[in-house]
Structures are given as structure tokens and as C-alpha cells.
Amino acid sequence: MSRLCLSTALLVLLGTLVAGTPEGDDSNKDNGLRPAFCLQPPYTGPCRAMFTRYFFNAVSGLCQTFTYGGCRRKQNNFRNEKECISTCGGRNRAQ
């Protein structure tokens, strides 16, 4: 019976470890790393709309505006500064 308890405990522990592992999660900012797409330059795209969007500028460490054409969006393209900061860990311009 003690083997059964030990086996069950090990399975529960293993299940907890596996469930707690982020799968496909690019957000590493908790450990000081940013998702790789935050290092990419802004991409306007081939369309001609003129949407103001935010991107993370890896050189300055700031979330800054750029003009987005409206199609073929890349990941370093955020609707607002707050979303950019929370995803890429940048500072806002006021800091």
C-alpha cells in the first residue's frame, strides 16, 4: 500500500510540474527577458491605412508610436501603450 501512495504522490507532483510549465509562451519578462518579437522593428505593412499603433523600441527601451497600414500585422504592434508595456516590459515615455 505504501508503494501505491508513493506512486500516486509522484504522479501528482509530476502532473503539477507539467501543468505549471508554460507551453509556447513567449513572455519571459518576469525573468528579465522579453519575447523575441519585441526586438523586431515596427512593420507598417503593404496596406495604406494610417492607424497609430505602438511598438517596443529595443534600442531605447520605450514603447513608441508608428503608423500601421492595416494589414499583415506583426507581433510588435500594439493598439495602446499599456498593452505594449505589459507585453514587452518597456517604460512609458513619461518615466
Automatic annotation (TrEMBL):
Keywords: Disulfide bond, Protease inhibitor, Repeat, Serine protease inhibitor, Signal. It holds the Pfam family Kunitz_BPTI. One of its GO terms (molecular function) is serine-type endopeptidase inhibitor activity. It comes from the Eukaryota. Residues 38-88 form the BPTI/Kunitz inhibitor domain. SMART domains: KU. The keyword Signal applies. Residues 1-20 form the signal peptide. PANTHER family: KUNITZ-TYPE PROTEASE INHIBITOR 2 (PTHR47247). This is BPTI/Kunitz inhibitor domain-containing protein.
